[in-house]
Amino acid sequence: MSAIQAVTEASAVAEAPAVTEAQFTERVVRMGVVRPPATAPAAMKGLLRQGICSDAAREWLHQRPEAVADRNQLLAAIYERLEECPSPATEWQAVREVLADDELLASLLGIGAISVRRYSKGERSCSDAVAARLHWLALVIEQLEGSYNAYGIRRWFQRSRAALDGQTPLDRLQGSWDPDDGAIQPILVLARSASLGMIAS
Questions:
Q1: 48-52: which pairs have CB atoms within 8 A and are 24 or more residues apart?
Q2: Percent of the chain having pLDDT more than 70?
Q3: How far apart are alpha carbons 103 and 115 in whole angstroms?
Q4: Domain extents for the chain?
């Protein structure tokens, strides 16, 4: 390989976006902010409507398309920030539609199935703790969707994993769990490995 080729390839790697527009859009869709199919601009406008990362979303929309590096950097920053932005107003229905099993969703969140239906219909507001668990679950599902269909996602939560000491994800998601708990974090790691095409045991 010539020196010129090496520099060119290194430059291409450096300019490659840390997060693609497709990945970003998938996250916003799974949060229920926009419906599929959607584009990154549509996802940004959805965030504006919901008041989520509004300033950054507005800035991205106003940036010139040719400012590729700046747009990619801001896109990645918003993508990461969304991990800290529960949106129960949109996520209840979005997560419920994927799982299509209120009993399973209730078990995963440590609440009753009746509460799931009331929250998703907007009849009651959930606590911040439940909203955080719902948001975390949406992020896990986002990672799984590229590798599993809806049936596979439901089964994923109910299959034992060596990485979880033989437990299923559902086994660990009992009671009033917190997304930051040490016993919970490995579940998201497993989901991310699935999105990367890795076989997680």
A1: 50/87, 50/89, 50/90, 52/82, 52/85, 52/87
A2: 90
A3: 10
A4: 3-84, 88-195
